[in-house]
């Protein structure tokens, strides 16, 4: 039997897309996944059960297993990226993954006042003080060459993480990351929160992707409620998602250009972004588009201006885009610096399941917008360069900026001078799931509602897969290009640590 | 944008040398450390350090190491894992030195109050020399706050330099 058949042979649950398996069937599923390409989205624990989420033809397919004595068969032998989820589940709940590929701590480095803080009965911790030591894998220990490190405090503006790497002659041999520095305990904060509070938290999981996270959470809550928001509110959400994509891509391009010694290009990107923000912030109430989405709709101080804003941004952005493209192409040394840098291999992307612009720039056909009803009649993306290098990723971001601006022009007509708002939701005891295409790829939320609050929340974003791709792509690259490569691959500790 | 640049230039650049503490040359160097937040304050700091803003023209620079910094610029709630990193950065800074909190999270934890993973904000733990509230504060707000630091005299705003200071 294939993986899908094994899952669907399980015990049905109230959600048509989730099935409950017994341990032997779960083991069979792991074996089937070794050869079955079913896309894996994430794994998480709620204290009593383990849940795995897959994407079947752009629709969710989930499977649940009850923990036996706190243990379960690991998925990582079949899905490498599951390693990160398994390590997080152990650190937070004490759920032990049997036959796991990697059992090093991910989040808990024994500085917390307790261990397994989300378990029914948290454990005792040494609560160590002092700097956390890097814990290498056996493979890293066996690697040759001097070991160096980068982060967690590099003086930059990105959330903290640490990379240890071996090097020879200024070229990186093997690199491994240590995370947990940006862990704020989102899962615990979400637990028992009101929908508005949960939404506010999701908007602050990772800056620059706030709309994606808030929209996905809101849609998951609405799906659990069986509620469909109005047409204008849906269009306003799409407009916000595309504005965020434009702003995010400009910021990322500026960061890449700055690190590639092209300050003029960086300044041009940031100037264009800032000009857009001058128009966006009065209408949305936030420069980083935080708190614009709420369960039941949107929350905008000048909602009636959304149509005009979309029109203005599209005109301004599309008028300025050719100059930005020309500058990017012609700035001395920029193309040469990025071409061939951090080339992602198709097999690595497939192995860890990374989607979004990184995969699209390597020729993968993946975009959650394709399946969202929100985008019906609006979205059509034409693929560009597909060689998977930093130069290809930059060009794809430039292409996507133009694409999103075109989409905003269409939305301006639909929105007109309507003032999309929000409707009040009544929260039943139910579960819901939803996903959107964030700036770096698929963002998915899975929520359980109980007694009018969110009992459990699971968030999937591309950060875990991006980290694994980064660790592969950095091999053989110059040491000084490490931050540039991390930037171009969308590695973000805030999104990873949660 | 040109207007903003002109205002910044007139307001800060011309009088910068007179506002800087005696014995110091060059800009006031800030070492930014993100102690575990969403990164929003860092993004706004990045915007401030780019066109059309003029952080350098206003008399400030971003240091690559704490040893080259005058002030520690902290954003994000303080996670327990980052606390010793923050302490190490502080100890690596030469005297006189001070602490600036960028954003609500760095001040009081913001939406990320104390739990098993975070200690909340810094205001319960150390003396803060400059508070820049907001979630996140805008680049203009940050620049105005930093400018007040120079206008008030940097020397006066670094009260713990003779005590060695501790986080």
TrEMBL record, chain A:
Signal peptide: none annotated. Keywords: Oxidoreductase. The keyword Magnesium does not apply. Residues 268-413 form the NADH-quinone oxidoreductase subunit D domain. The keyword Repeat does not apply. This is NADH-quinone oxidoreductase subunit D. It comes from Acetobacter suratthaniensis. The lineage of its organism: Bacteria, Pseudomonadati, Pseudomonadota, Alphaproteobacteria, Acetobacterales.
UniProtKB/TrEMBL annotation, chain B:
SUPFAM superfamilies: HydA/Nqo6-like. The keyword Nucleotide-binding does not apply. Keywords: 4Fe-4S, Cell membrane, Iron, Iron-sulfur, Membrane, Metal-binding. Residues 38-148 form the NADH:ubiquinone oxidoreductase-like 20kDa subunit domain. Its cofactor is [4Fe-4S] cluster. Belongs to the complex I 20 kDa subunit family. PANTHER family: FORMATE HYDROGENLYASE SUBUNIT 7-RELATED, HYDROGENASE-4 COMPONENT I. This is NADH-quinone oxidoreductase subunit B.
